[in-house]
Amino acid sequence: MGVTQVTVAVINPADLKRRWEGLFLVDTGSIDCMVPRNRLREVGIQPEGKRTYELADGTEIAMDVAVARIEFMGDFVGATVIFGKDDIEPILGVTALESVGIEIDPQSQRLKRLPAVRLKALQTSDYPAIEVCKV
Is the dihedral of CA 86, 76, 108, 54 positive or negative? Predict the structure, then answer.
């Protein structure tokens, strides 16, 4: 599999003028986004708690987390960000991708926008007042 990267802006949700932009590795094996700790602090995002993550080798590690506004490919999402080491390569996790309806094309290794964000658990009968778009 090839490497897919995308430019991402990490923004303080309490002050949208405070932002950092960088090139992120798209990692569909990661649930959350990982950002260098020093970059999160630069934009005023502080740890709000800890979450335990399982690494590729099976090791479990507790890491600081917070919520940030993540912008990429003309869209945005509120996402959990992990405070990584200052020199870590930033990672865009699968939750942020799926939340805005973007996936990796397995053949071209490029990001592609889906025609709609997936919401399969619901049926149109659950929301009779909502207009259904026929594609």
Answer: positive
Distance CA(112)–CA(27), nearest Å, equals 14
Report pTM.
Answer: 0.81
**Sequence spans of domains, the chain:** 5-126
The token pair that represents 66 in the structure block: 């917070």
Whether the per-residue pLDDT at 93 is higher than 70: the answer is yes
The CATH code belonging to domain 5-126 is 2.40.70.10
- Amino acid present at 108: S
Return the C-alpha torsion angle 31, 49, 77, 123, nearest 10: 70
Yes or no: say if 23 and 7 are a contact pair by the CB < 8 Å rule: yes
